[in-house]
Amino acid sequence: MKDLVCDGCSLLCDDVKAEYKEGELKSLGLCRLGHECLEVALKRNESKSSIRKSGKSVSASLDEAVAAAAKILREAKRPLVYGWTRSTNDAIKVGLDIAASCKAFFDTQASLGALRAFSSELHDMNIDYTLDDARNNAEVVIYWGSNPTESSHRHVSRFSVLPKGERIPEGVESRAVVVVDVRETETMKIANHRLVIPFGSDADIMRAISGELTGTSSIVEEVAGIPAVELISLTNKLKNSDSTVFFYGSGLFASGYASENLMALKELIESIRKNGRAAHAMPVASDTNTIGAMQTLNGSTGFPSAVDYSTGSASNSEGQNMHSLLLGERFDAALVVGSDIVATLPGELGACMSSLPLIYIGPPDGLTPSRATVFIPAGSNMVLTEETMLRVDQEPIQLIPFHKDGNGQLSETEVLRRLLHAVRVRD
Ligand code: SF4
Question: pTM for the full model?
Fold first, then answer.
């Protein structure tokens, strides 16, 4: 069996192996999702580029499709360059060069929610904490608004709950697992302590626990309908734990109270630390390279999202974001890379995107290839490349090419390099 790195989710598992012989895949260590991702990538037939002409999608050579895409980008007055949370950092850098060359607006799909986590003060106070630290030290593990059992399958088994660690001699027996969410989730099945809370009450509950921890206020009877006895029991767990980690997810961003929730979580962590106990927080992100997309953009331009090249250099205007510009019909073409945006963008945004001359570079699965004006297939990063992504805790992980032929498909990065060349060389 060969070593590989799975890019099925943002854990980027690099402790897995697989063998592919005569159309059959055997794997060791991959979860169901990872095995399926690899199998789909390996069994994918070579797919052709296509160009939409008179409403019909017709097959085209790679060179024809690249030329057509470059023409759309060169002729656009205000193109959007978007996607990237499933792309490698190397591909994102080429994408930035394309955006600069055609004076585009560049954004990543992380700006839909995960950006809040990255750009908050909460992020700054947890910058050096890794998943390995959680495995080695975390006595209390709290999933708040996240459901890794369905989105990051090996989170629990590889890092946060089941494994033994330097200070966790008995693995799961040495930890307490708490899950807080607005509904019953799969992850709740492994929890010692489950809290199903009303929608929008996260910050109130966090602040109540903070007050109880620091002695500045007391929980009497209930908070947001949660009985005091449950919250005080959780507070006592936090008081007695040498190390607590919060894994927070989209539940904190999707409620419309993202800033308030992140601020309340920051206060809660500070309250635990004031008690002389260690506490940290880390997001649970489902898209493979969500953190890498924000970091690469930030490192290259100084902004983690919404970079505007319309003046010839990178800028970021307060209040400008891709979603409001897209809804305001401010773009006249779009290049989307790696993300099936027609399937995943919320309704109105997806419809606006589909109405533009749309270039899509990525895997042939999903709705976006069939709606694109120009579609250029790219092979799986997990199969083809030795490029780099960032794990959800910001650890750089270099991919290992598993099957370099990749069914005759080029990598995203190689397709983007050809597109960059075509955009720069005018015909
Ligand atoms: S947890 Fe994620 S990265 Fe790890 S094997 Fe499963 S899908 Fe792949």
Answer: 0.93
